[in-house]
Write a structure and sequence with these properties.
Layout lengths: L1 E5 L6 E7 L2 E8 L4 E3 L5 H7 L3 E3 L6 H6 L4 E2 L1 H5 L8 H8 L1
Parallel strand pairs: 4-5
Antiparallel strand pairs: 1-2, 2-3, 3-4, 5-6
């Protein structure tokens, strides 16, 4: 099952993919970068120069916005996204 949702009337789209026997894959895409769940390979994200932040241990979009960022790529850090800030604050910098 794939769920696509407009996130809080922001210029962001959320995608949630159910995974059999595992937590869902969740992504919220802004215009300048994205929030990812723990499935993101950070080495690849860095190599590709993505502005990406990880918010781990989430099951839905609201949790992704409320929980803290655990990792930010160098490109995301340049935009002001720092580990420890909420996913919502990070997303606002990635829009």
């Amino acid at each position: 099952m794939i769920e696509i949702s407009q996130i809080e009337n922001l210029n962001a789209i959320g995608i949630k993919v159910s995974m059999p026997g595992a937590p869902p894959l969740i992504l919220i895409r802004g215009t300048r970068g994205a929030l990812f769940c723990g499935y993101l390979n950070t080495e690849v994200a860095e190599r590709l120069g993505l502005a990406a932040a990880i918010v781990g241990g989430v099951k839905n979009f609201e949790e992704m916005l409320e929980k803290p960022v655990t990792y930010s790529t160098r490109k995301a850090i340049e935009l002001g996204v720092k580990p420890g800030m909420s996913g919502r604050d990070a997303l606002n910098l990635l829009i």
